[in-house]
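Q: Is it fine to ask for two folds in a single conversation?
A: Yes, each is treated on its own. Send the first.
Q: Here.
A: Result:
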Amino acid sequence: MLLSARTYARIAKFDDRVDTAFDHIRGDPVADKVFYAASAVGDFSLVWLVLGALRGLRSEHHWHAAVRVGAALGVESLLVNVGVKSLFRRSRPVLDLPRTRRLRQPRTSSFPSGHATSGFLAATLLSEGDAAWPLYYALAAVVAGSRVHVKIHHASDVVGGALVGLALGRVARRLAPLPVGSVESITRMGS
């Protein structure tokens, strides 16, 4: 047992409260459209790879940032999906009602959320030297939250994934810093 029974009870209570809050917007056509779309574009880190590629097209300095994001997402996927998830083997939330849209159903453990991990890792890397940095984090939050809305993850899976993603992003910044002067050049160019 990794955590005490009391801690597991607190986590379950937190998950239930957040799930109940999402119940108020599940089934709303606009909320469903936004969250199902966010969940779908987060599959296989697609949205983050596209944003990295688009950033890379801006200039050579941005290209370095784009390559770093792609490489980091590959390492993250291996670490989280093959390593971390195999340690926890947490079951996914029970689906009370049928989903309003089709979604890929993961076969791995629920903890941590890979969408949250990849989103916050990518946001941490893409935000460096980019004036659009708040948008990266906002999108990461929407993609991560979408996993609770569509009932593929518990809220604690998403929080855990976000924390892992932020930590991996900080490590990646240290292990693979952008070339000297590139952050300053990117900032001067106005993104």
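Q: Second one now.
A: Result:
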Amino acid sequence: MRGVLLALACVMAACGGAESRGLSIEVRGLSARAETLVVGLFPDASQSCTGVSLASVATIKAPLERRWERSSGAPRTLEFDETIEAEKVTLVAYSLTAEAQPLQYLCHVVEYDSIRGLVAVRLSDRPLDSQ
């Protein structure tokens, strides 16, 4: 479904200094067709968003990754408790249908200096100019 958006909120964990902290990612607006949500983090923005598309996003393997399954009934908050020592983090997130087909996606570089408690980003099935 074109134009379906998935809102994510990245909430800074209350630990570490300006360049060393974990993240909690709260997911809102997940498509009813999505069975799985995958969120990956690349410290130091080691993954470029150039070339990331709905067709390629499921092939990207992040060093830090969390999955949420609709069948789990768990809250859609994904915790990254690892200490992330980087000024920037590339966030790659996507949802999958029951047939494991990508439905929505996002690739966005998050700079820790810009995180002041809450960062709102969106996933979409349309190409994005992210960065």
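Q: Anything structural to flag on that second result?
A: Two points. The longest strand covers residues 102-111. The two ends are 24 Å apart (CA to CA).
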